Amino acid sequence: xxxxxxxxxxxxxxxxxxxxxxxxxxxxxxxxxxxxxxxxxxxxxxxxxxxxxxxxxxxxxxxxxxxxxxxxxxxxxxxxxxxxxxxxxxxxxxxxxxxxxxxxxxxxxxxxxxxxxxxxxxxxxxxxxxxxxxxxxxxxxxxxxxxxxxxxxxxxxxxxxxxxxxxxxxxxxxxxxxxxxxxxxxxxxxxxxxxxxxxxxxxxxxxxxxxxxxxxxxxxxxxxxxxxxxxxxxxxxxxxxxxxxxxxxxxxxxxxxxxxxxxxxxxxxxxxxxxxxxxxxxxxxxxxxxxxxxxxxxxxxxxxxxxxxxxxxxxxxxxxxxxxxxxxxxxxxxxxxxxxxxxxxxxxxxxxxxxxxxxxxxxxxxxxxxxxxxxxxxxxxxxxxxxxxxxxxxxxxxxxxxxxxxxxxxxxxxxxxxxxxxxxxxxxxxxxxxxxxxxxxx
Length: 442
Hints:
The protein has helices at residues 6-14, 19-28, 33-58, 68-88, 95-104, 108-118, 122-149, 153-166, 173-178, 193-231, 234-252, 254-274, 276-285, 293-299, 303-316, 327-334, 355-384, 387-403, 416-433. By secondary structure, it is an all-alpha fold.
């Protein structure tokens, strides 16, 4: 970026001084999907409006408050996410739904720009990364209190407020009775606690190690680990194990990390002995040791059957898939066992529960190739960055990598919640990698 006068840069960046707090508000509202989506959409519109006003009034030789490298990377990652939707829409099984998704997801472009702007300056990065660590820490503490008290104080407060205002809570009586894991602030009808904490854990661990060193990292890792383990999502266990491996290697070193892992195994055994819910999850996982396909499908909570259905969709629509969010439409024709009750309970399958199969089934080979191009762009940007830039972006990259780790099960990446979370991490990476260290750029 040219060396513009300091007063010019200051005025333009101050117009976006609210963006770090907007990002944190979006994350803090994740347990309330409607308000969180509203904050995302309104913030994205505000970013677009301010950028448009600045572009009109700035003139040809005046700077805009968006680093060129961050803008290019954020725009490219948006294209990687959005173009598969567009290409799958013309012959999607549910064309009207697919076209609505294509139009609605345009909001993610100014959203990514806004996240990158929020992290441009060192002050913004401190606010956002410390805020994400704080949110993860509060939700972890709340989950641990639920393990002791039997109820999440945060969700109990939110549910009570909703009952006072609207006369009914978030969850039905059946959902309250059927929950078999820690649900935390998300509640028994929105079992995402473990997955969300696993994706946010790099920020919490980085903050703990920066403030308190190896001891702080270890304490935070144990607290997060207990909450994620009792959260019951085995996909979150895999994601968090990856986070501990990469983060712990840098903080503890190889020998101390091995000692920490050994202590962790002992602690998990003790936790297993006193947690019936954890015993049930482990018992279900051991079904995979059975030689028949039913055992494997039971261990995967029916995902083996879902994956067979996804493979059927890929064979029928290899180029551009059945359309984004069209999995449920194609499922009745691709269910490999239509007469049998599913292992996941009542209802049809709504998505592939695996990133690669979701992309191939809903967006085809074209969609998968675009996502692979996005992975290459992230890797290339990391390889070309200097040491300081890598250090700034490391927590965001680790969070993004474990969230999209292909050898795992996943929520739907083209759903509102998980898609917003994944794109937030992409924006955090782009903004932090190309952020400024000079406070005069504020």
